[in-house]
Amino acid sequence: MLRHTKANGIIRSKYLKFSQTEVHRVMATPLTSTAYRKRWQEGLLRSRAGMSPDERKYFFYSKYNWERQQAVSERFKPSDAFREAVSALPQGARLLYLTEDWCIDSAYSFPVIDSIPDLGSDITLEIYVRDENLELMDRYLTNGGRSVPKLIVRDSAGNDLCTWGPKARKLVSHRKQLQEEGADGPALVQATSDWYENAGWLEIERELVHAFLTCVPAEALS
């Protein structure tokens, strides 16, 4: 059923369409960006007393990522190219965004993606927390893994047009080079953070420009 082609890291469907029954079965009620931010903030108000070591670790991941996405939100100004690419999406497009607030890649991509509905015509952003939507996540695996973030662009009829994620290709290449040079896990984490802090999130915008301009309208595939 899942028929996709992949080019330049962007997956395009060959007229993939979910039935209404399938959509209902695999998708929980999505969060708006406002509701997602509220949930994120409320999670940071929890007492750390009684947390396991893993729970504390993910709590601090979420805390640092809240600060990261805030910083990007304050600095990000959509480029003219990004505005034009968003305007090229079909009217009524739906953006499904699979994410987790502890994920650094999600933290830096969220402000960019969250800006899209304000730039396009009747575009909606639907946010799905990965671990609460595994059936949906499992339709969009990366190398067999449940990697987030993952952005799925659909038309108003439910046809998948293209996807993006979980990482910018330049970051993937950077990490691969470091691994080949013997970098361990902590070094890769620090390198990823440094890459994003050096305005790496602008590379996400550039990749989305390419993705949106090459999304294939469903009617062109029929």
Explained architecture:
Mean pLDDT is 88; it is low at 1-21 and 218-222. The radius of gyration is 17 Å and the shape is globular. Helix 5 links the parallel strand 4 and strand 5. 50% of the residues lie in helices and 15% in strands. The protein has a 5-stranded mixed beta sheet with strand order 3-7-6-4-5, covered by helices on one side. A two-stranded antiparallel sheet has the order 1-2. It is built from 9 helices and 7 strands. By secondary structure, it is an alpha+beta fold. The longest helix has 30 residues, at 185-214. It has a single domain (4-221), classed as Glutaredoxin.
Q: Supply the CATH class.
A: Alpha Beta
Low-confidence stretches: 1-21, 218-222
CATH architecture: 3-Layer(aba) Sandwich
Total domain count: 1
Level of helix content?
Answer: 40-55%
- Helical stretch count? 9
* Percent of residues in beta strands: 5-15%
Shape: globular
The helix/strand series, from N terminus to C terminus, equals EEEHHHHEHEHEEHHH
Radius of gyration: 17 Å
Structural class: alpha+beta
Mean model confidence by pLDDT: 88
Structure summary:
The chain contains 9 helices and 7 strands; from the N terminus they run βββααααβαβαββααα. It is α+β, with helices and mostly antiparallel strands and 222 residues long.
Write the layout of secondary structure elements.
Layout lengths: L3 E4 L2 E4 L2 E2 L2 H7 L6 H12 L8 H23 L4 H8 L6 E6 L4 H11 L9 E6 L4 H4 L12 E5 L4 E6 L4 H12 L4 H30 L3 H4 L1
Helix pairs in contact: 2-3, 3-5, 4-8, 5-8, 7-8
